[in-house]
């Protein structure tokens, strides 16, 4: 019996194009920075024309923010799944898994380079900095929800407001990602674990 593949709708085709452009940009921005990534080369790598690009994005800046947003959404979703499975393993197991995932993320060279590029581009371009700040704030709110979920599930009392806890954890991740491995220092997962235990592991009374 012969099956004919279903034709994609126009909306599905556009979404597929958008995903492939984001995938190509993710690699190119990390490899050589946003300034060095020409629109022509980016489109060629994704397999599309520049017209296809402008049907989905207004500029490389918008594409960069979309790359960042997608990555953060994926990571938060993955960590939310870890938190949702933590009831059976207790808070120690939950923190171990969360710390390990954060350390893996800090070890991801492509994502670390992309994060650095975002910061550099924000310094160079004030208008981009304003837009990237909105993405960053939205990401911190998402991460705050994740931490609040963990805290509520295990009846914990954080030592500071959850949003500030999210900011601190993000700053710690950024620093460890930039530093890389240091022979004399503790492994990154132990640093994350220590931070989490000291910030949120106090049981509520």
From TrEMBL:
User: What's the domain of life for this entry?
Assistant: Bacteria
A Gene Ontology molecular-function term?
A: DNA-binding transcription factor activity
Q: Any idea where the HTH tetR-type domain is?
A: 15-75
**Where's DNA bound on this chain?**
38-57
InterPro entries to which the protein is assigned, alphabetical: Homeodomain-like_sf (IPR009057), HTH-type_TetR-like_transc_reg (IPR050109), HTH_TetR (IPR001647), Tet_transcr_reg_TetR-rel_C_sf (IPR036271)
According to UniProt, the name of this protein is TetR family transcriptional regulator
Endpoints of the signal sequence: none
Keyword vocabulary terms for this entry: DNA-binding
